[in-house]
Amino acid sequence: MDIKNNIEELINSLGSSNCKLVAVSKTKPVSAIKEAYGAGQRIFGENKAQEMTEKQSELPEDIEWHMIGHLQRNKVKYIAPYVSLIHSVDSLKLLKEINKQAKKNNRVINVLLQIHIAEEDTKFGLDKNELFELLHSLELTELNNVKIIGLMGMATFTEDKDQIRREFKSLAQLFEESKRDVQAENVELSELSMGMSGDYKIALEEGSTMIRVGSSIFGERNNQ
């Protein structure tokens, strides 16, 4: 795999959009991340807290580490000292734990709320009612060490591009609706994280500001 070339091609395909590229490095060795770093990539996404922490300790300090996988509350403490963005917040309980651990580390941690847009039952996430309930929660206003900066969603794993587009479009509409509705000081919605290797071009057309790409950079994932 020519990681440098793959990154350059991806950046070119983003064109003039301000969309950020998250290189999904889960299951990949530190050597592959170093190669991507050498090509100018600075944002990396992992889905396991301990794996990310091990890699973080071996790699340059200016890397932005994004937690993109489902995060258990008892794992937040491992990543709280350094994580730049958590994409997968799907409950107020998890948000409270992130706030608690951020406070211990004297930090404010940025998060995205994960929205369930796929037809598959396996995907995590809030529905529309749960999202607005959380955004209007009085408890949210008391969480001074977290900042909700956007939404994230994963489309159904399907060849049906029309379905993928519908799902991304629905998330983009919800994003705009949420922005108009927000009142809490610790909510400032600017990021819409949607799109992966197989569907990021559709996501870009529907307004994504952040894509999560692994196999198109590093090759097919190692099973773990």
What does this molecule look like?
With 224 residues, the protein is of the alpha/beta class. The protein is 41% helix and 20% strand. It has ten helices and eight strands. An eight-stranded parallel sheet has the order 7-6-5-4-3-2-1-8. The two termini are 20 Å apart. The model has no long low-confidence stretch (mean pLDDT 94).
Name the descriptors.
single chain, 224 residues, alpha/beta, 8-stranded parallel beta sheet
Brief write-up:
The protein has 224 residues and is of the alpha/beta class. It is built from 10 helices and 8 strands. The longest helix is centred in the C-terminal third of the chain and has 21 residues, at 161-181.
Give the helix level as a range of percent.
40-55%
What is the first-to-last residue Cα distance? 20 Å
Q: Mean pLDDT, nearest integer?
A: 94
Compressed to H and E, one letter per element, the order equals HEHEHEHEHEHHEHEHEH
Largest sheet, spatial ordering of strands:
7-6-5-4-3-2-1-8
**Rg, alpha carbons:** 17 Å
- Morphology call: globular
How many helices? 10
